[in-house]
Specification:
Helix content is 32%, strand content 22%. By secondary structure, it is α/β, with parallel strands linked by helices.
């Protein structure tokens, strides 16, 4: 094989970018797409569309399309079933975030994936390819920051209008999406939180359901995290603030790192904090420090985040190597988000590992008791693909 033939299941907004990315790669080719709504195919560039086959049934697509790999880009609840069907058909997979709506479904998908060691299985965690994020990860892993004491991440630049939520009947509902800002907007940051710092052992969160929008799911979250090694964290997210903030602050032994507006600033202590605290003869003040702007090369990489993941999968299929975002790792950020929501709904501290059965039961109750109905003004996303096989 000298080229990987791709198919895409679910032609919503993001899939048009995936189609374009595949066409830009020399060792990849888009050969087929699938959506239960035939009008969705019109979102794909006409020149590309003329060269591919279009299917409206998943089973037929998997059996008849000339494809080696599948990008699963359907509403959240359908991710596990579609990915499992693709693997059972012998296809490599890239699953859009999140891996599933809740941890128990992610566990089911991962268990099925383990039965297919011959296949490459990735998640679309494209933000792991951003050079700034990779630099922060490198600085943490090589000990440049020293022991981390506190993390504060404010991600409130996810503003969404009411018409956004009204654009699909699956959006912002327990039955259709399974959650709000934690499940739709923040999976990347939740993944980066665990990628950078690991998972906490305890979570206490306050969540607001429909605070800023006419929706039934959470559009504001304030979470406090405790880690086994003693560090603490704060995670704040919202889709109701404009212009909002995206600021990551890491306080550590060697100083303070801030990532905001695409820049990494590190105020580096001359003497580690705990050492200075124990040995200084001064009652006030701090030790000398340096204010540094951390340089990293981007060279347009951030502009092609999704393509970077697809290219990585292509290379692993053709030549071997390591995945940027193994699908199995998707359960970690999902578990963190599930824990935040469960804590907020119960008004209690939740311990990790999360009881996946408890969370699944909680979500089932929310779905069963929901009386929420909203007017849908436009259908911009694909429907329930589990109905097609």
């Amino acid at each position: 094989m000298d080229k990987v033939k791709f198919g895409i299941i679910g032609i919503g907004n993001i899939s048009t970018f995936h189609a374009k990315s595949i066409c830009e790669l020399a060792q990849a080719e888009l050969t087929a797409v699938c959506d239960i709504n035939p009008e969705a195919f019109l979102r794909i560039d006409a020149a590309v569309r003329s060269k591919i086959k279009c299917f409206t049934d998943v089973e037929t697509f998997l059996n008849e399309a000339d494809i080696d790999a599948v990008i699963v880009s359907v509403p959240h609840y359908s991710h596990p079933d579609i990915a499992i069907a693709a693997m059972n058909a012998g296809k490599h997979i890239i699953v859009e975030k999140p891996i599933a709506v809740h941890k128990r479904e992610a566990e089911r998908l991962i268990a099925e994936a383990a039965k297919h060691p011959e296949l490459v299985k990735s998640l679309m965690f494209n933000q792991r390819t951003i050079p700034a994020h990779k630099k922060i990860k490198q600085m943490i892993d090589n000990g440049e920051l020293g022991t981390i004491r506190r993390i504060n991440w404010i991600i409130t630049d996810w503003f969404r209008s009411q018409i956004y939520y009204d654009s699909g009947d699956w959006r912002a509902s327990w039955r259709g999406e399974g959650g709000g800002v934690l499940l739709n907007q923040c999976p990347h940051q939740l993944d980066l939180m665990q990628w950078f710092f690991g998972l906490p052992c305890k979570v206490r969160a306050d969540v607001k359901l429909g605070k800023y929008h006419d929706i039934e799911v959470e559009d504001e979250v304030n979470a406090y995290l405790e880690y086994a090694d003693g560090k603490t964290g704060n995670f704040i997210a919202s889709t109701g603030e404009m212009p909002g903030t995206n600021r990551l602050e890491i306080t550590a032994e060697r100083g303070r790192l801030v990532f905001e507006d695409g820049k990494i600033e590190f105020i580096r202590n001359e003497i580690p904090t705990s050492e200075y605290c124990r040995h200084t003869d001064k009652k006030f003040g701090i030790c000398d420090n340096w204010k540094c702007e951390v340089r990293f090369e981007d060279n347009g990489i951030s502009a092609h985040q999704h393509r970077n993941v697809i290219e990585n999968v292509v290379n692993v299929i053709l030549h071997g190597g390591e995945l940027i975002a193994p699908m199995e790792e998707g359960i970690r950020g999902l578990e963190l988000g599930n824990a935040m929501l469960l804590s907020g709904l119960k008004h209690e501290t939740v311990e990790l590992p999360l009881d996946s059965a408890e969370y699944a039961a909680c979500l089932d109750t929310l779905i069963a008791t929901s009386r929420y109905h909203k007017k849908v003004v436009a259908a911009n996303d694909s429907g329930d693909f589990t109905k097609s096989f």
